[in-house]
Every structure is written in C-alpha cells, then in structure tokens.
Amino acid sequence: MAGRRPGRVWQSGKLLFILSVGLGMAGCASPVSLYHDAEGGDIAHLNTPIPGSELPYPNLASVPAAPAALTATEKQAVQQQLQTAGTAPATPAGMALAAAPGALGGLTLPDSAPPEPDVPGINWQGLPAATPVAMAAPPAAVTVKPDGPPILLAFQPKSALLLAQAQTALAALAKARGSADIRVGGFGEQNAAVDPVQDAAALTLGLQRARRIADALTAAGVPPAKITLVASAAGSGGFAQLVY
Hints:
Oligomer: single chain
Largest sheet: 4 strands, mixed
Radius of gyration: 59 Å
Shape: elongated
CATH class of the domain at 156-243: Alpha Beta
Structural class: alpha+beta
C-alpha cells in the first residue's frame, strides 16, 4: 500500500462496485420473472374472456309474437282453393288442415299448371315418342341325346369275318341312325401274357375287325365321314355305337 494515494484507491473500488452491480442486474431476471419461472410459466396474463361477454343481454321484446290460428272458415277456404288447383294432399278424416297464417298472401292459385317454357335445348315437346324395343325370344333349349348303347358284334375266331347275325344288326343300326355319327371298334383277342410280336398281331386284328364293321355300315348307306374307328389288342369281337 505504500506509495499509493488513498483517493485513487477509493475511486478504483467504487468503479469496480458499480460495474459489478450493473453486470449482475443485466444478467439476472426480475423477482417476478423468477417467480413465474418457478411456477411453470407466465401467470401474469389474464384468462381469455368468454365469447360474447361484451354483448348486451337479448331483448325479449324483439321476439315476434305467435301467429294467430286460422278460423274454421279460413281453413275451409284454403282447402277449397288447393282442391281446385289439384294439389290438395289427402287429409285423413277428422283432421283439420293446418296452414301457416298468410301463406297465400292474398294471391289466387291458378286453375292449372302454367305451360312449359320454350327454351332452346331443353324443350321436350317436339321429341318423338319412344319406340318400344321388341325383345327377342330366348332360344329354345337344346336337348342333347346321350350316346346309344354299344351293339356287340361277333367274328369268326382269329379272323375279321363277320357272322350273319352281326351284319343284320349293322343294317338295322344304319337304318335307325338318323343324323348321328357311328363309332365302331374291333378287339384282337390278346391273351394276358404275350410277347411284343403277338401284341402287334392282336392290335392288327382289332383294326381289321373295326374296318370290316365300317365297310358293312358303308354298304348299308352310312357316309364314311360319319364313322369313327377305334381298335384295341385286348378283348374279343367288336362293337358299333350311335354318337350324338
């Protein structure tokens, strides 16, 4: 402290005090702000006023009075005018027609509806009447005949020679055929256990028998295009069947 003047020391301390107080006030909030922060928000703002609280009370004198009821004579006159105009609704028996007072307002209802205005584009009076469309009759149900039962035909053993009764049966089938097709088949008398050579021979015999049946039908007047051939190595004899 030696060598310093007391006045300068006091002035320096005063300046430091003023600066510290100014910085403290600038950095810290007011007591009200601190209280609001502790409470969780700004509580100084007032609540939003109730909507319409500033408006005056409603004036009951401005409410219109209840309308007077129509007399029996007035009701009868209104109903007569509606019936004349053709627009009177059906009123149940014993129920009076209720109408608001002054509904007609002194006007007279017309006796008929006014004519349609002639406006271009929407005038329907000049359009021709719709022509009814005749519906076509539904097609008749098509009856599908089932295939006829197969007629079994006998051959001479190990040959394609038809027996006499088989040829008679084929002639009767050709006569009763109509427009139906005919399926014919021949079997080659194959045994249960055969070698490949015997199997081929049996299938050849079955095909020969089917062709023999087709030849007999063609001779009886059946077109060859109406005949279908099938053949099998197994089985015996042959067959003919109407196919619709």
